[in-house]
Write a structure and sequence with these properties.
With 113 residues, the protein is α/β, with parallel strands linked by helices. The protein has a single domain, classed as HprK N-terminal domain-like (Udp-n-acetylmuramoylalanyl-d-glutamate--2,6- Diaminopimelate Ligase, Chain: A, domain 1, 3-Layer(aba) Sandwich). It contains five helices and five strands, in the order H-E-E-H-E-H-E-H-E-H. It has a five-stranded mixed β-sheet with strand order 1-5-4-3-2, with helices on both faces. Helix 2 runs parallel beside helix 3 and helix 3 runs parallel beside helix 4. The longest helix has 14 residues. The radius of gyration is 12 Å and the shape is globular. The N and C termini lie close together (9 Å).
Length: 113
């Protein structure tokens, strides 16, 4: 499933940084501890988190994450958003809790199998 397809399927997901919405999402990963994400998040995943800071963008670059999903109406630092645009990191936000957002992404991935 591409990021564009995900956005079209889930109206509660709002695009905030469109780098390459044709990029594939192959899995979903949830964690807010950046050192864990850096070492364990699979490449090409949608990472669901509440961490909307500059370090999150750096971790997404290092782990080759397809999409950062900022859940629970968490705020996104302006510096993080600017760096995401420079580094071409896709970001969306949602009011949904982390679990619910991840579940919707997983359901979308399962429907495409």
């Amino acid at each position: 499933m591409t990021i564009k397809q995900l956005i079209e399927k889930v109206p509660k997901f709002e695009a905030i940084c469109k780098a390459d919405f044709s990029r594939e999402i192959k899995s979903v990963y949830c964690c807010d501890l950046l050192s864990i994400v850096m070492g364990r998040a699979p490449a090409d995943c949608a990472w669901v988190t509440v961490m909307g800071n500059l370090n999150s963008v750096a971790v997404a670059v290092l782990a080759d994450i397809s999409l950062i999903v900022i859940a629970e109406n968490s705020s996104i630092d302006e510096s993080a958003l600017a760096k995401a645009q420079i580094k071409e990191i896709n970001m969306i936000k949602t009011c949904l809790p982390i679990f619910d957002a991840a579940k919707l992404i997983d359901e979308g991935l399962s429907a495409n199998d």
